Amino acid sequence: MRAADLEVYNVSWAPTKSAQPVLHPTTFRVAAGRVLGVVGPNGAGKSTLLRLLYRFQQPKTGYVRVGGQDIWSMPARNAARRIAAVLQEQASAFGLTVREIVRLGRTPHRSGFATSGAGDEQVVDRVLTTLSLRSLADRDFGTLSGGERQRVMVARALAQDPQVLILDEPTNHLDVRHQLEVVSLIQSLGLTIVVSLHDLNMASGVCDDVLILKNGQPQGFGPPQSLLTDTLVSDTFRVDARREHLASNGASHFSFTLPN
Ligand SMILES: Nc1ncnc2c1ncn2[C@@H]1O[C@H](COP(=O)(O)OP(=O)(O)OP(=O)(O)O)[C@@H](O)[C@H]1O
């Protein structure tokens, strides 16, 4: 795995030319190997921002550079060798086996109509092992549990051998054990990672930096311990947020109540 710098400059997006932007100009940088968390209330623009980062949608303004190169100045196949995404929508995966889905991650590395080669199969085997999926390799994706499916989608992204990994709410639908497993995996990869998360305690624990969005506007960027103040979190999420330090290990933990 080889990480690369991700540079996001002044990117904005609107559904049509005349529509109001759902993402206003946003700028940040994620150094190679660092983890950025994107947080914000429902409809804040998190998924919209991520779609610009994995080259699904083109920004109306600004640019996204990976390793110094604008991702829209290179062919889609080259971008797919650099950036992989783990998304929540997985409809296309039904009807395929786990191995077939993970193999799809190798597509950007093949030329023309070439079929999967020995090198590709080695990568697929390695990734299946890393994610403890070998025993499920021949199972139909549709028969897996939510947690197992999530692991398969991460495996497909890793088989892509990307420099940057984008994860849209990867812990959704996962039980506590599997949430922790996904988080620990994210921390261990050594890739440049952008991950949207709803759980602020998880974001504080796993991310080097956090970007807060609200109504498509960036509200702040920085290390979670200094950025996520009670005031900023309360204002952004329209709750009363209080950060406490757990006596057991000193880790910080947010608790939330509705304002009076
Ligand atoms: N293609 C589109 N056309 C019109 N509006 C859109 C489009 N894509 C996104 N939006 C709007 O942009 C806003 C931000 O959506 P987005 O999905 O990025 O938010 P989010 O922060 O990921 O939300 P959630 O936490 O609920 O998943 C929403 O109001 C959404 O309806």
From TrEMBL:
Taxonomic superkingdom: Bacteria
Keyword Nucleotide-binding applies: yes
SMART domains: AAA
The ABC transporter domain, residue ranges: 6-240
InterPro entries (alphabetical): AAA+_ATPase, ABC_transporter-like_ATP-bd, ABC_transporter-like_CS, P-loop_NTPase
Signal peptide: none
Family statement: Belongs to the ABC transporter superfamily.
Name of the protein this chain belongs to: ABC transporter ATP-binding protein
